[in-house]
Amino acid sequence: MYAVIRAGGKQYRVAPGDVVKVEKLPAGRGETVQFDEVLAVSGDDGKVGAGKEAKDAKVSGQVVEEGRADKILVFHFKRKKQYKKIQGHRQPYTAVRITEIAFGGQSFTAPALHKKTRTTPPADAEATQ
């Protein structure tokens, strides 16, 4: 089960449970995001639906984190003219975990995330014993 969505002018192939870094979204950490522009969907039977079938599909996700990508250096150089210029750029992104893809009366959800449990007792608990 997967869907092809458009976000920030780019296309992404997503499945429930995937974490995708998209262009910066106005949502905060932990909020739910709805992707309405679905280009294609595929069910468990292997059929790919596009057009009207994909327009009715809804993809939702939860914001995991926000950040900035690695620095990209832009270097301008003109030979024999003593001209060099370096400029850096860091593109902001929002990481979204796809939680559900719904279309045609079916809903495919991502498995729940496990809560981390501590396997060793804290250091101060050992000192009190």
The biggest beta sheet reads:
5 strands, antiparallel
Task: Assign the structural class, choosing from mainly alpha, mainly beta, alpha/beta, alpha+beta, or little secondary structure.
Answer: mainly beta
Overall morphology: flat
Mean pLDDT score = 85
The proportion of residues forming helix, as a percent range, comes to under 10%
Number of domains: 1
Number of strands: 11
Taking all Cα atoms into account, the compactness measure Rg is 22 Å
Low-pLDDT residue intervals, each spanning 5 or more residues: none
Describe the 3D structure.
The protein has 129 residues and is mainly beta. The chain has one domain (2-105). Helix content is 8%, strand content 53%. The chain has two helices and eleven strands. A hairpin with a 2-residue loop joins strand 1 and strand 2 (10-14). The longest helix is centred in the last third of the chain and has 6 residues, at 123-128. The model has no long low-confidence stretch (mean pLDDT 85).
